[in-house]
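Quick start: read one record
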Amino acid sequence: MSLTEAILLTVVAAATPLLIAALGELVVERAGVLNLGLEGMMAVGASCGFAAASLSGSTVVGVVAAIFAGMALSAVFAFLTLGLAANQVASGLALTILGLGLSGLVGEAFVGTRLDPVGRIEVPGLTDLPVVGKLLFGHDPFVYIALLLTIGTAWFLKRTHHGLVLRSIGENHVSAHALGLKVLRTRLLAVLFGGACAGLAGAYLSLAYTPFWSPGMTAGRGWIALALVVFASWMPWRALGGALVFGGATVLQLHAQAASIGLPSQALSALPYIATIVALVLMSLGRGRSSAVPGSLGMPFVPDR
């Protein structure tokens, strides 16, 4: 394997959890809900997925456990913001703190434990093709799930009646309610979907990307995924491209540290987050991008008001 091919494979791997988490948050925000608890849900998904896989000996069980863990935490957020109409920003930040604490508690007994990494899907005759073989046919199942999620999310939002309903609620929940649309039910399902995606992204980190558990292994990826939704202008296909950009920044700082280029390691570790800030600044200077923001994003909805 050439160095370029190895770097590209690493970029795809680094982009996968960002893309999965961002797609879930994208659907949540298109429904008009802002969930800043992505980092906490990813951490809980990583710890619960690793614990379940370690105890059961099955990666599938670990993935399912991570998805349900993410959904359970998102249900708490939905109860606060949809049921009690609590402030979404404050509730999301509290969810992150709760998730990070719970992940440390669940994963305490598994620190230092290692699992066999998830196997890669290889297609005989195609994986060995020069240049594109391993890039297209040599990844683990999570990568292909992320691609399918991208296609499915884009199709759902643009081509289905339920996707139109969700986007309508995100644009103006008062008008949607007046037309008889189920605002709270739609937002609840969207929030649960976002939690499931965050849990799945966390499972990828602890079961495939680095098959062991350590506290804080999400390393701010939840915040990058939140920024990625804005960078993508709430469009799934742009989220795919943005995930590769941010994943590339992550890989770049790792290779820069390995090459000992003379910069402090702390500055190199901050590179992905600097890239995130620069991308958001450029987006804010872009023409017409603010119009892509869902009109009711972050606004609580109470039917009897």
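The mean pLDDT is 88.
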